[in-house]
Amino acid sequence: MKWITRERPKIDRLACPWLIRRFIDPKAQIIYVPENEVLTQAAALNATPFDIPGVEFTHYDDQCTFDYFIKKYELKDPALQVMAPVVRGADTDDHALARQSSGLWAISAGLAHNTQDDQELLEKGMLIYDALYSWATHLREEKHTQSPTEHLLLQIYKTYISNKNEKKSKVPAWTKDLKNLIQDHIDTNLNFNLKIASEELDVNPAYLSREFSRYFDNLSFGEYIRKLRIEKSIQLLESSEDSLAEIAYLTGFSDQSHFNRVFKAHMGQTPSEYRKFIRKSKGNTKR
Known about the structure:
- By secondary structure, this protein is mostly helical.
- 64% of the residues lie in helices and 4% in strands.
- It has 2 domains: 2-139, no CATH class; 174-286, Arc Repressor Mutant, subunit A.
- It has 14 helices and 3 strands.
- Strands 2-1-3 form a 3-stranded parallel β-sheet, covered by helices on one side.
- Strand 1 (2-6), helix 1 and strand 2 form a beta-alpha-beta unit.
- Helix 3 packs antiparallel against helix 4 (78-92).
- The N and C termini lie far apart (84 Å).
- The model has no long low-confidence stretch (mean pLDDT 86).
């Protein structure tokens, strides 16, 4: 059986072929092609596409393609149930799902960086997932440190770190990058959405959408963008002589009517009323 997916695999596109060859079809042929050729080549080669949008074998909600293969083929091996959240966490950048996810991502990213040939990369990936499967089957309770002294020192260290950081919240690194990206797009009046953000940050869009409000004022992505646009429009209303139509354009609203409607919903008055109020207040201050 032939299976086909996007080139330059890292997580799902290595984990799924491993799963196919080890549990579904040992002689399966895995084909990697440019993303825009997957469906046409699938039809030409009579291959099953996977891990691309719009096909059966892909992501569903917060589940990755590896999860779907396990569900589809009703694979009951307990070790696969252990591996699934590790793979999912690495593939969706949600490393809280399993402690091993960040390590799997780091190894996979480094492996892809060092190996340019996708078939060679797949063969090396098979070794990684064989090792992960052995760990999940036999070694999950094993610890690297064995002596009582080492355990005691580690426990003291962990307690120290825990106390030191207990009041610090863990904020993902991508939040700072995303704030900068959003500000850049707001300043240049460019269209910006979750798809663009996820591509520029290399973060899974479903994870980004789910986690966004935790780090951005409890607002959804759309609500946060509108908030920034309103703030920018207030600055322009107060400091520039631009017309309302120009300000609507400069702050990314589709037209002046849209700008008026959103501004009033946030501020309780139209942009024109707000500008008049500000100018009147400044006039009273000069007296």
